[in-house]
Amino acid sequence: MDKLPDTDILQGKIIICTYPKKDPDDFFEIISQLGAEVYYLPMIEVSPSLFQLQKEIGSYHWLVFTSKNGVSAFLQEQKPTNSNKMAALGEITAAELLKNGYVADFVGSGKSGADFAEELSGTIPPGNSVLLVLGNLAPDTLQRKLSANHPVDRVNVYQTIEPENIDENLLKQIEDDAYDLLIVSSPSAIKNLYATLKRNKTGLRLISIGKTTTTAMSELGLNPLVTAAESSYKALAEATISYFKKDLKNNTL
Fold this sequence. Notes:
Belongs to the uroporphyrinogen-III synthase family. Residues 29-237 form the Tetrapyrrole biosynthesis uroporphyrinogen III synthase domain. Catalyzes cyclization of the linear tetrapyrrole, hydroxymethylbilane, to the macrocyclic uroporphyrinogen III. One of its GO terms (biological process) is protoporphyrinogen IX biosynthetic process. There is one protein chain. By secondary structure, the chain is an alpha/beta fold. It folds into two domains: 14-25 and 37-44 and 172-252, 3-Layer(aba) Sandwich (Rossmann fold); 46-161, Rossmann fold. 36% of the residues lie in helices and 19% in strands. The protein is built from nine helices and eleven strands. The protein has helices at residues 26-33, 68-77, 90-99, 113-121, 141-146, 168-175, 187-196, 211-219, 233-252, and strands spanning 14-17, 37-40, 45-48, 62-65, 85-89, 106-108, 130-135, 152-161, 181-184, 206-208, 226-227. The protein has a six-stranded mixed β-sheet with strand order 3-8-7-4-5-6, with helices on both faces. It has a five-stranded parallel β-sheet with strand order 2-1-9-10-11. Helix 2 links the parallel strand 4 (62-65) and strand 5 (85-89). The model is unreliable at 1-5 (pLDDT under 50).
């Protein structure tokens, strides 16, 4: 069989993203160039929270960031010192640090919080103090794992909430099955979408950004068509393209 073309493999496909529109958006840039119609139905809103550290920032050996939102909210209020080392979960988080002038000393694989906890426990020397910079909905996976050998503090620097305004037309498209794929990049987004939909919940065609989001889907009785190889929007795009290539191949056999 001839190689399947990439240039128009997504032509006319309707893809709905459940995360807020970003600038830049690697997913949109890649997918729209291949002919897809990309729409945004944000199922979460993220806003900075007021926070206070339990001790001086310079007393922590490590600052641990798990998201881009955590980096931006934290740096609005605090300035790391030369005594702080920094760890980032995934390339997106590391890139946000770099954008603000900081280079991560360690970048985790980005596959899940549990994987990151394992990686950190083998990277941070025993006894080093750790500050976890998180959102209000982040589980205590990191804290439980690291607390065995490190003094650990946690600070919630942003909150993730359900959006006040939701595009009813796009919701109806999903309920009417008038779309090709839903792109989901967080557990909160799929939970909020599932709770908001009034019908046609079980047959959702989902692409997941990673294992943590896929787990949240499974808890709702949903299964993604594909889970991205790593937690990045570029990997989401690659997973989407891979799905349509496989679908096209199957339909032409």
